[in-house]
Amino acid sequence: MMHEEQQLFMAEMADVKPLKSAESHFFVKAPQDEAAQKARREAADIDERLLALSVDTVNLKRVKGDEIVSFAREGVQEAVLKTLRLGRYEAKTRFDFRGLSLSEARKTLLELIDGALFRGERNLLLVCGKGLGNKPFEAVMKSALTTWLSQLEVVRAFHSATREEGGSGALYVMLIKSEAEKIHSRETNRRGARR
């Protein structure tokens, strides 16, 4: 019986040719797998950035509640910083950090920046308050935000807001240009040079 089965099998397989061995194998991923992987990468990225921004008050550069603060990375033109200082850039993203813990504020800051960059926005208005009665020292939230903002590469500059929008208790923040904005600026400048 075994011999007959083997002969039958061999007869059925007579015209079958073996596949050529290939070095590479192709696997198709389900879209859900890619989305899950992207979500895990983004979560890991946020976790890494959170760890880089300390919530330990010992590591914060202390500023006074009524102090006017200003920061600009190398390459930010003085005219751009002046326009930022005067509040002439539209800030669609605005958020009040008063009442948040430093851990909540740090996470919220990264989410606000990521959201603004995703939408192609370059400017934010962040209300930190003056924190005149804060413990362990004055202006804890303001000190935290200015320390963190100066550590984030996507932040080009920040300055205390105008009196109408919070004065020394609020910050105008300018982010980097998106790739689309950089291309648009180059094209605009190139067209202007031809005229």
Automatic annotation (TrEMBL):
Cited SUPFAM superfamilies: SMR domain-like
One Pfam entry name: Smr
Residue intervals of the Smr domain: 95-176
PANTHER family the UniProt entry points to: DNA ENDONUCLEASE SMRA-RELATED
UniProt-recorded name of the protein: Smr/MutS family protein
Source organism per UniProt: Shewanella jiangmenensis
